[in-house]
Amino acid sequence: MNDTLLKIWNKRPLIISGPCSAETEAQVLQTAKELASTSKVDVLRAGIWKPRTKPGLFEGIGEVGLEWLSTAKKETGLPTTVEVATAQHVEQALKHGVDILWIGARTTVNPFSVQEVADALKGVNIPILVKNPINPDVELWCGAIERLQKVGLQNIGMIHRGFSSYGNTEYRNAPMWHLPIEMKRRFSEMLLICDPSHICGNRHNLQEVAQKSIDLDFGGLIIESHIDPDNAWSDAKQQITPAVLSVMLTNLLWRIKNENYNTTELSLLRERIDQVDDELLSLLNRRMKIADEVGNYKKDNNLTILQTARWNEILERAIAKGNNLTLSKEFLVKYFDAVHMESINHQNKVMNEKGSVLNK
Ligand code: PEP
Ligand code: MN
Question: Rounded CA gap, 152 and 163, in Å?
Answer without folding.
Answer: 28
